[in-house]
Amino acid sequence: MRPLHEQPGVVAAGYERSVSAGTIVFEVGDPVDAVHVVLDGVLLVRSVSLDGDSAVVDVRGRGDLLDDTALLDEPPGLHYDGATAVTPVRVLRIPLRVFDELRDRSPELGAALVSQLTEQVRRLSASLVDLLGRPGRARAARRLLALSDALERSGMHGTALVLTQQDVADFVGTTRSTLNAYLQEFELASAVASSRGRLTITDPHALAAFA
Amino acid sequence: MPSSLIDLLGAEAAREIRRRGERRQFRRREVLFREGDIGDSVYMIERGHVLVRADRSPGEHLTLAVLGPGDYFGDVAVLSTVGRRSAGVEALDECVMFVLQAADYLELRDTYPEVRRAMTESLARICRRLVERLVDGRHVDARGRLLRQLLHLAELFDGPIIFTQEDLAAYVGVTRVTVNQILQSLVEDDAVEVRRGSVRVMDAARIRAKL
Q1: Rounded to an integer, what distance in angstroms lies between the CA atom of residue B201 and that of residue A80?
Q2: What is the DSSP letter of B177?
Q3: Which of A118, A127, A167 should we substitute to test contact with B (largest number of B Cβ atoms within 10 Å)?
Q4: What is this structure's pTM?
Q5: Please, which pLDDT band fits residue B1 given cuts at 50, 70 and 90?
């Protein structure tokens, strides 16, 4: 099955937007009036719970849809999640109404969305199992590997990720200082390289040894 | 929550699912399949509820999701090249389901837009619940998570939560002893009623006040 951005009619239905690393593509409270399909690059998705807490919950890359809540029969009026580019990113923005018509017309697009959400359920489930049952260091390595996979999909292996240690800590589910200790270990193994506001995954295999 | 996925469909799609699917009943606590099993069928819940569980270590598991009427499961194995169940599923109460073989599932999905819509809807809802728990898991201690999930589960079941204390522990990611202690204190405050195999929220406002 072809990925979303290669589905017939998808590219023609939207307009392309290129943003630099660190750019917020949409954020909590923005109206849900369009969907975004990632053409290139990597983003982190941060979500706010019904109780008002927030955390980085997922990573998205080429071919992924950013706004899954827009797919609900009754989408919420406003985003309760936000997406931030951690590399240079190209996204396709498609007005919600146009996208809705397109997916009803195209069985393959509808099926691709089902597959995508199935994969997302699998990924979020794995994160939840990790969060509630796995030690912090392994969690940190696994979330960084998820970022590495997303880079790989855009052929961006080795590209510096523009994010703070707090962002990564929020994704891993640990404190910034604990994360810092893990990162130092990973750096000693030459698995990652970090500098202020930047993190490069230099050797995914070395990183996998911690996962 | 919709009464059944099939009820959401047009007459023709519903008839096709009924014709091709095998209507099966499952007893309370019956294991439908285990993580790692080979499987190529998809289940659509008509009546009843199931637990989706991931193994953490032998004899210990984490509940990834509680699914009910309107939801379906089993598609991860069908869509993946591995063909193995990514999680185990156990019936919580008496269940009635339509079981579709992979080829029929894929054909129905590709033929009927409303089947794709209903699947997308179910998956997007599951994602949302996973995200809620991921965010909770990062910010809230065991007690807070249990209180929040009791409120959410009470809504989901719209009545008594048909969970044992073990089920609650596996859902929230804490020990059964912790669950028992917290439930005892809630019972003393008349906030919940604990029966054998179920918990009933008597005073949601009182639980909310403790958060």
Answers
A1: 27
A2: H
A3: A118
A4: 0.90
A5: very low
pLDDT digits over B183-203, tens only?
999 999 999 999 999 999 999
**CA distances from residue B160 to A49, B151, B153 in whole angstroms, order as listed:** 24, 11, 9
Q: What DSSP assignment string belongs to A2-19?
A: --GGGSTTHHHHSEEEEE
> Among B154, B185, B146, which residue's Cα sits nearest to residue B63?
B146
Maximal C-alpha separation, chain A: 53
d(CA B161, CA A193): 48
First-residue to last-residue Cα distance in chain B: 26
Contact (CB<8Å) B119/A114: yes
Question: Which residue reads 């954020």 in tokens?
Answer: A27
Q: Closest Cα to residue A74, out of B117, B156, B68?
A: B117
Distance from CA of A149 to the nearest CA of B (A): 17
Cβ of B121 and A71 within 8 Å? yes
- In this complex, which of B54, B120, B138 lies closest to A114 when CB atoms are compared? B120
Which of B109, B133, B140 shows the shortest C-beta gap to A128?
B133
Using CB atoms, pick whichever of B52, B113, B125 lies closest to residue A110. Answer: B113
Distance from CA of B26 to the nearest CA of A (A): 24
Q: Buried b / exposed e across B17-35, counting CB within 10 Å, b at 16+?
A: beebbeeeebeeeeebbee
- Mutation test of the interface with chain B: which of A123, A129, A134, choosing the one with the most B Cβ atoms within 10 A? A129
Compute the nearest-CA separation of B103 from chain A (Å): 14
CA torsion B171-B175-B179-B182 (nearest 10°) is -130
Residues making up chain A, counted from first to last:
211
Q: How far, in Å, CA of B211 to CA of B204, rounded?
A: 11
Residue A88 carries which DSSP code? -
Q: Do A129 and B54 touch (CB under 8 A)?
A: yes
DSSP code at position A71 = G
Q: Which two tokens stand for residue A161?
A: 């990720």
Q: Which residue of A has its CA nearest to B64?
A: A125
- pLDDT tier for residue B119 given thresholds of 50, 70 and 90: confident
Amino acid at A178: T
H or E segment and range at residue B83 = none
> How high is the pLDDT of residue B56?
74
* Identity of the residue in B123, B136, B211 whose CB atom sits nearest the CB atom of A114: B123
Helices of type H across A7-70: 10-13
